[in-house]
Amino acid sequence: MSAKLKVGIVGGTGMVGQRFVELLDQHPWFEVTGIAASAGSAGKTYEESVKGRWKLSTPIPEAVKNIVVKDASKVEEVASEVDFIFCAVDMNKKDIQALEEAYARTGTPVVSNNSAHRWTADVPMVIPEINDNHLEVIADQRKRLGTTTGFIAVKPNCSIQSYVPALNALLDFKPTEVVASTYQAISGAGKNFTDWPEMLDNVIPYIGGEEEKSEQEPLRIWGTVENGEIVKASAPHITTQCIRVPVTDGHLATVFVKFENKPSKEEILARWSQFAGKPQLLELPSAPKQFITYFEEENRPQTKLDRDIERGMGVSVGRLREDSLYDYKFVGLSHNTVRGAAGGAVLIAELLKAEGYIQAK
């Protein structure tokens, strides 16, 4: 491996930005050399900018403490010093779209944790083990943006990681209907219990916009590339409920599924245990060795026990059984700020580098 690629984190002071900082510390391919945030944080060292609001249990990595935070709106200045950026800003959709496209037009690849471009037709929204072929639309996106090296790629919503991989392994059996309820950690809202004491001993049966994302984004993941655009799949039909629960990290899903060609339980378990994708084939640094882990115990997976499986990059499944209304039901679990957010984006960047889309400037 040649010298590490220089990485900028735009939105580096928020919870997901902090997770990027943590995950990229000592990364074998990437080195954080730039951090950008709002004008209020600009000019401070990173340590100063997150003082009193560092949300992770691990300490701030020494390598980034003295990096001087830049103003994220000064696109040319930030982009000139890095090979690519991760973006995790807290802004309205139109402003995020404009900011990410501005970075891409400087010739800088953008790997986004934001939702703003998830439905832009020529922007790939990727779970690397599932739809790496969607990266081919980058060529058309570059033409639209007028750049030969810049582009935007995004990761999907954190909640769908808990059940889409398990369903994806069974697509050959043609699932037709899916009912999923997700029980989502407070870190998905960028909070911890210090920030949000109202969540202690409480459940909130509503997360704004989450159910639409959870029902529609899997269909884009399973879509096809046609004429330089991603066209979403028409099946299965998915309906969801998304609930906020008093858990720090980890999104758990209860899933009911009906198939056109009903598999046996043994066939399902075999598909889950054998399922792997391009990250496993390429042995990417952040890729879980075992993408889907099935627990035989009746009381697993549990959020507290199992969210960190495969360094938070694996998906856990359990309680597979036949159902009286649907064909099968099961429980899925994923770490929402690792696999579902920063870690998933880092894995996308590793895939993009391995496939030649990201290179040193």
Which parts are unreliable, with pLDDT below 50 for 5 consecutive residues or more? none
DSSP, total strands? 14
- Report the helical percentage: 25-40%
Instruction: Give the radius of gyration.
Output: 20 Å
Number of domains: 2
For the record, give the distance between the C-alpha atoms at the N and C termini, rounded to a whole number: 16 Å
CATH classification class of the largest domain: Alpha Beta
- Calculate the mean pLDDT score and round it: 97
Main structural class: alpha/beta
CATH architecture label name of the largest domain: 2-Layer Sandwich
Give a quick precis of the structure.
The chain has 361 residues and is α/β, with parallel strands linked by helices. It has helices at residues 15-24, 46-49, 62-65, 75-79, 93-105, 138-145, 164-168, 210-221, 265-274, 278-282, 303-306, 338-354; strands spanning 5-10, 30-37, 70-71, 84-87, 109-112, 151-154, 175-184, 224-226, 229-231, 237-244, 251-259, 292-295, 315-322, 328-334.
